[in-house]
Amino acid sequence: MSLDAGPDFVRRHIGPREQDVATMLGTIGVSSLGALIDKSVPGGIRAGRELDIDAAASEPAVIAELREKASRNRVLTSMIGLGYYGTHTPPVVRRNILENPAWYTAYTPYQPEISQGRLEALLNFQTVVSDLTGLPTAGASLLDEATAVAEAMTLMRRAAKVADDAVLLLDAQVLPQSVAVTQTRAGALGIDVVVADLRDVRDAAGLRAAAGDRDVFGVVVQYPGAAGEVVDWRALTAAAHDAGALVTASTDLLALTLLTPPGEWGADVAVGNSQRFGVPMGFGGPHAGFMSVRSGLERTLPGRLVGVSLDADGAPAYRLALQTREQHIRREKATSNICTAQVLLAVIASMYAVWHGPEGLAQIARDVHGKAVGLAEALRAGGIEPVHKSFFDTLTVAVPGRSDAVVEAALDRGINIWRVDADHVSVSVDETTTDEQLAAVAAAFGVNAPQASDGTEIWDDALVRTSDYLTHPVFNTHHSETGMLRYLRALADRDYALDRGMIPLGSCTMKLNATTEMESITWPEFADLHPFAPADQTVGIRELIDDLEGWLCAITGYDAVSLQPNAGSQGEFAGLLAIHAYHQANGESERNVCLIPASAHGTNAASAVMAGLKVVVVKTAPTGEVDMDDLKLKLKQHGETLAAIMVTYPSTHGVFEDTIAELCDLVHEAGGQVYIDGANLNALVGVAQPGQFGGDVSHLNLHKTFCIPHGGGGPGVGPVAVRSHLAPYLPNHPLSAEAGPDTGVGPVSAAPFGSASILPISWAYVRLMGGAGLTAATETAILSANYVAARLRDSFPVLYAGQSGLIAHECILDLRPLTKESGVTVDDVAKRLIDYGFHAPTMSFPVAGTLMVEPTESESLEELDRFCEAMIAIRAEIQDVIDGKVAAADSVLRHAPHTALSLTADWDHPYTRAEAAYPAGVDPLRKYWAPVRRIDGAYGDRHLICSCPAPEAFED
Ligand SMILES: *Cc1c(COP(=O)(O)O)cnc(C)c1O
Q: What does the pLDDT look like over 207-221, one tens digit per residue?
């Protein structure tokens, strides 16, 4: 396809022009793009024909198609509840965060000096969760409430000192999707789960009896319960602690503004979903799940944790605490496989709290509670007694034999309520519920319109919250729109995202997230659907899901896809569960070994462990490929018990390995399944199909290859794609027959279609590019990577290349020899790149002491050159150290990044201020100023502060 004459959008998505391609090919020394692909991609795996995807459509046409799909959803008022509620996203937050590329195109804050804005927002999130749950340490988001319950299960299992065969006890009022996801996870680990009514448990003997005369390691309660009831769990908690078990409360942040927080009645862990803090329901997600823990458990928290530390000038600065633990997910020693989380949504939820403040939040909660109480009184006056005396926002109502009729009557009035069973319905009130809607619901029950009460708590005094929360100034300052706008701007200005320049991260594919792709996600027809809304109201979004599944099959060569996993890690887990179920169905349940090459992403091994598999590492050959001799040895050793191999293709070394087809054959011969980690699919789309060259299952990352923006560390979507023999074992969902096969492995996400509301982004990308455009993107990504490698090879050795001397879509620059010679580290180079106006490449993954660069197809030749020239200039700075002109410790590299403040302070460096701030080629008009200097991570880990610090925290 011509990059100059092709469809408009393709030309806008792909950076280089036709003439640039010629220049780049010249630098690489290859005659044509076709020749480059022929030489770099092994012939044996090349797709034989063009992608079977429709031709590209224009941006206006794609928006029109999306409007048409949207119009086939029917957005009714949702009073379904069950963890998802109507909420008003403050417009100032919607426009300036959710619709602002400064926030949504940012990367995970692994380079904290250029991520202070989102790190502050995440610290605010942790403070909100910690204050409201009454537990001292909260993490920076989990994937959803149901997976958070599952994470709490494994945390409690590790922390409880009880027998190995002890069980997990769930109260009967835990949300049904949380029960189901927890059962999926527990099943893989061989943990037994018992669901029972725990309201009357008073002592350790009662607890044991409830568990069917078994020891218990953990208890989970929903607070308030799924049916709405507010229960005092103190006696149960004391009983659990007596028995050596831990207690998790799955809870609701809005209710906790009025309810005694779990931390005050003894819970060890609190989890939940922050959705109703301003994040639309979105047919199930994305939203930020959360977890907080009592002291003593902070080092076992899954996911990321933001902490406070100091920079080189002693100024306070934020960074990910205990980060090395998290960045590499600790492989088989992992306690969780979470990498991509829900940063953007956590930021929105935190800003909802900043915007409303503690008083505003309590007022919203009282208003919601008052409406629910009013509805209960109206029902009572009409002779219908709600089932529970104590509730916050949800009423369960007995309507013997009439529940279908009542649900229907509500539907006629434009409202979805929940059918619990033939004799009961439930109704949830939220901040968006109007008096008219309450009157309509009352009419559906055949009673008179309610009068809202004043919102005074109707539950026991023992559960009325008396403690303060959100007293920090950040929650009590930015309450005017002018103030809020400026606070959001100030934070965004501290960060480097794709709206400033290239983010050349290996393995993460930071490509264009086009505005047209983003546009529809905030349309009410997609944003305001409840995930459990009746299927006839969600026709449009499910059509879109079907389209996308079909296209992903066409691209990957697999037969079936599930979009339910809400991150790559969850796709991995789902894929491994499918493999396990398949072996079991074949009577080979002894197959439990998962081979993983040494270079694999940390999530691979962590997912294997979660799926109940035993990890066996396969060595890497000196050339960077999987060591085939070692593979053969491991196959011999484990053949009988081999379940699968997990390989990334092209490998995390950035190379198309010639041996992939042979590797797949060997594993299949040994009776194993081949899991191909598809995170690097940006090098394959239109060129080769993992489902055809030997893979049985892959996960893809829509937040890498398919343009869902990184969001500063989430959201993501990690579809799992399988060949037909594994299709019966894809995820399904207890509350949605449409979500997967009856024979499925159970749900891996809370919502039937995971993070459904961001799927229009990837749908739009495929429509806008068409088959030829997608292929051109892949070819250009490979071209750009080879161009960067060719330009930088003389300055920094490229660690691995294929037999042709070419690489795939990314390359590893080996700094180790230079570090040895000069003392200048990868850290020094990464931080110095900030002075030059760049986000650093991936550091020390998959090889310590190296940088991995993936330019993607979206960067122009001009931007690629700007990056290469910065790297070459840095190489010259390193040479000065090698030549003895300056000591590493005094060099401009070691003191990077330089803030504006540091330039105007006393200056006793052997380099000038101009050399520090405007090194070769930096355009003063485009200068990005880091807000802090290099951050001391170790200091922060020794003095762990993970919520908004009081200013005194930094006094000497
Ligand atoms: C990003 C990545 C993953 C994990 O995906 P998440 O969405 O972050 O969970 C797994 N494998 C590889 C090779 C990756 O690059």
A: 999 999 999 999 999
Other CB atoms within 10 Å distance of the CB of residue 724: 11
Strands 415-416 and 394-398, sheet pairing? unpaired
CA-atom Rg of the chain in angstroms: 28
User: Could you write out the DSSP letters of every residue in 566-631?
Assistant: SSHHHHHHHHHHHHHHHHHHTT-TT--EEEEETTS-HHHHHHHHHTTPEEEEEPBPTTSSB-HHHH
Does the C-beta of 141 come closer than 6 Å to ligand 1? no
SS3 category, 697 = strand
Helix (H, G, I), strand (E, B) or coil at 226: coil
Alpha helices in 726-825 (DSSP H): 759-792, 816-822
Q: Which of 311, 339, 288 is nearest to 124 (CA)?
A: 288
416-438 burial, b for 16+ CB within 10 Å, e for fewer?
bbbbbeeebbbbbbbbebeeebb
Query: Residue 716 CA: which ligand 1 atom is closest?
Result: 7
Q: Is the CB of 506 under 6 A from ligand 1?
A: no
**730-738 mean pLDDT:** 97
Q: Is the CB of 718 under 6 A from ligand 1?
A: yes
Is the C-beta atom of 676 inside 6 A of ligand 1? Answer: no
Instruction: Check if 566 has its Cβ closer than 6 Å to any atom of ligand 1.
Output: no
8 A C-beta contact, residue 191 and residue 153: yes
342 lines ligand 1 (CB under 6 A): no
The pLDDT score that the predictor gives to residue 460 is 95
Q: Distance, CA 513 to ligand 1 centroid (Å)?
A: 18
Q: Which amino acid is at 52?
A: D
pLDDT at 328 (0 to 100): 46
Contacts of 785 (CB under 8 A, 6+ apart): 654, 807, 808, 809, 810, 811, 853, 854, 855
C-alpha 573/C-alpha 608 separation (Å) is 7
Cα 902 from chain centroid (whole Å)? 36
Q: Tell me the pLDDT tens digit for each residue of 901-940.
A: 999 999 999 999 999 999 987 999 999 999 999 999 888 8
Task: Quote the ligand 1 centre to 569 CA distance (angstroms).
Answer: 6
Q: Is 603 in the pocket of ligand 1 (CB under 6 A)?
A: yes
Closest protein CA for atom 3 of ligand 1: 568
Instruction: Give dist(CA 803, CA 796) in Å, integer.
Output: 19
